[in-house]
Design brief:
Length: 187
């Protein structure tokens, strides 16, 4: 059996998400995967970066990490996205990269892969619970499927209420947490 190709694409301003991405890389390599660790391009203004010494230091420390390219997604069997939480959303730098891969989606080259995401923030309940559903594939489930020529489409949706033995509706998952919180293989 061929090894799995795993791409870990992340954005990190001060190094926390970078450390998580490195840990994921090490774990995947120990499991026998071929791994590409990639950061997305920094788009923050130099003045903003210069105002925070830890941000400047992190940019210097990760200068050797290659920037993500669409080919990194096409190559992968498994894709992990890492982002800090920004007011309950993924960082704009990661979103900008994801928005740039529409051509791969149109060609159907993002379908049939396993996707997951990880995040970090300064404090508990600082938006992590809303950041992950906003990170692909939770935010853009159609982007990760093969385009349909018939107009028919399916997507990952939160669990819907189902009758329980008591006759009351129950949920198999929280309504705002898509099934993409776990690795899912879409066709």
């Amino acid at each position: 059996m061929d090894p799995v190709n795993a791409t870990i694409i992340y954005y990190s301003a001060t190094g926390t998400v970078h450390a998580l991405a490195r840990a994921a890389t090490e774990g995947a390599e120990k499991a026998g995967a071929r791994v590409r660790l990639r950061k997305v391009a920094e788009t923050a203004a130099p003045e903003a970066i210069g105002a925070r010494p830890e941000w400047e230091r992190h940019i210097r420390d990760t200068a050797d990490v290659a920037e993500a390219a669409p080919d990194d997604l096409a190559w992968a069997d498994v894709v992990l996205f890492g982002t800090p939480t920004r007011f309950g959303n993924p960082a704009s730098q990661l979103r900008a990269f994801i928005e740039s891969v529409g051509g791969l989606w149109f060609e159907g080259r993002l379908a049939g892969k396993v996707y997951s995401a990880f995040t970090a923030s300064n404090t508990a309940h600082d938006g992590q619970e809303s950041t992950l559903p906003q990170t692909p594939p939770g935010r853009y489930p159609q982007r990760w499927r093969t385009p349909s020529t018939t107009g028919a489409a399916s997507s990952c949706r939160p669990a819907t209420p189902t009758p329980s033995s008591s006759g009351r509706a129950t949920r198999t998952a929280p309504p705002t947490w898509p099934a993409t919180a776990r690795p899912v293989r879409w066709s």
